[in-house]
Amino acid sequence: MVSRNEPVETKWGRNRIGNRWYWTIMTRFWLSHSFSLVWLLFSVYISLPWLMDLAKLTNLPLALFIIGGIAYIPGYLMAFLLASLVLDRQPPFKEEHPNEAVTVMIAAYNEESSIYETIRYVATQDYTGPLHLLVIDNNSNDNTSSEVLRAKEDFSLPITLLHEQKPGKFQALNFGLTHVTTPYVITLDADTLIHPSAVRFLVARLVSSPKDVCAVAGSMLVRNSRRSFWTRLQEWDYFLGIASIKRLQGLYQGTLVAQGAFSLYETAAVQEVGGWPDAIGEDIVLTWRLLETKRRVYFEPLAVAFTDAPESFRHFARQRSRWARGMVEGLQEVKPWRQPQLYTKYLTGVNLIMPYLDIAYTFFWIPGLILALFGHYWIVGPMTLLVLPLTVLSYGLLYFYQRDYVFKNLNLRVRKNLFGFIFFVLSYQLFMSPISVWGYAQETFKLKRVWE
Length: 452
Hints:
single chain, 54% helix, alpha/beta
């Protein structure tokens, strides 16, 4: 067992662990904001002619609303992300080979085509501690249970198969939680494959963390990136976009989504907040409830899992609109100002302005881009390109971090996907913002939930 004692950290300046010096979280937080503020003031100063020209066509408040949503605030957030990534230093593990007892829990509905392979990857983990697999068949009408029993015979891994008749992933997970006897539990999607060291790195990060850290999110990557145009785009979204946000949030000890696809939790902490809620974003709401109890959630980039991304635009749009709905559910359930930690107040508070940014992008930037193609630079013009250098720098930093720290240590190779990268940088948000706006509308008007 590893003692989870937190080193005494001053709020400002630099601290030391052994021979290693590092900036405190508070110092990095305000340094990043200071850089962002300078960038914002610079952006406002050089964009004044653009602002005044747009105000003549509309009025000053509307011009500020438009430019703020498509340039000023996105630029500030991107500058904060860039500065935070530069200052981020992942703390070393206290123990890279922990031996705590862990339960891996899989909620499965009609997963006969993938569940066997998922279990095989769990069975081949290099984790040396007791590992138990708990599969909850959520009223499947195919051969999911038969495939689980076949895996139980084929692999030297303790497997328990349960049946939950009530439909809903949260129902299955909560039923499974009542059968968990280990101090730690990992949730894993039935179609997700984990790297052979993924469980070990998740547990190593948790036991190496302070006592108030109750969950660690794994790193999700796309497995089927060669299947379609949409999976090629999503490969870069997972590899750069989502990973950069996870690293940012992990740096400030408030990862906002310990995703149900692959994350580790303290069993008692999940039980204390009532398990998974009846929500379209059950993992988001659960994570925010944990943060609300003055606990912290980390992110471990070396704990890699591979998932299948939606291959068609229809399924992609449904997935991302669900994510947008889940964010709104989280904001309704746990208000940002109720978060006890400064960092999580800020990180969850950013989500309050995401609908504004997506609406501004959808209803102003996209029409402005069309106007610009015809020579009318009223909304989209040279000034909007100021966000691009920050984006390229942020993605560049993360690319080399992923390649040289994550993939190199895991003996993985970054796939070549230049076509997907170009379209990801130039056009991804053209799809994402309208889809997110549709998700916000679905939640606002309480439309029927669509899972597939």
